[in-house]
Amino acid sequence: MSLQRDHKIAVLVSGTGRHLENLCRLAADGTLGGTVTLCISSRPGVLALERAASAAIPAVVLQKEGVESDRAYGVRLFEEIRRSGADTVVLAGFLRKLWIPDDYRGRVINIHPSLLPAFGGKGFYGHRVHSAVLERGCQVSGCTVHLVDDVYDNGPILVQRWCPVEPGDSADTLAARVFEEELRALPEGLRRFWAHDS
Ligand code: GRF
What we know:
Layout: E1 7-13, H1 18-29, E2 34-41, H2 47-54, E3 59-61, H3 70-84, E4 88-91, E5 108-112, H4 127-136, E6 140-147, E7 157-164, H5 171-195
Parallel strand pairs: 1-2, 1-4, 2-3, 4-5
Antiparallel strand pairs: 5-6, 6-7
């Protein structure tokens, strides 16, 4: 039942928007099981906004600067999300703490570039994650798609995919290998979420 529904997704970004582009491509192919109805960026002028425009996805910029609290910022964000009709929210490189209202609790999904709970939490984002993995001498890394709760990188896990750490890896080469897994993991996580969504 839920698999046949065309889910509506709001994608929240702060940067390059490769996941946004991938989700839009899969949605257009009809292989995602959902449609991207809105992109919200916490930063102006980022590549993600250009990718949203290329895919003809409505986009808004909502900056946290000047907003008095996480909650007030979340209220503004979710007003836009509600208006778009989205039933699912994806954080794809969204670098802001998110307050979630009751009607969207359990409906917000994040992708993180490590095998959580390792290398997660405040301060672990982007290349910091991969540098920490290399410094620790890990032999595997990967990515995690999970539901978002009130704690950074903490909610129930939907999908994990792993890859080897190769000798001589830099944060860049490891990030690129992990990202290949991320491109598969996020759509897989969304499908798994919707399959159990009544
Ligand atoms: C990804 O590596 C994701 O795991 C992390 O932020 C990055 C987003 O990349 N949360 P992009 O903006 O989709 O290119």
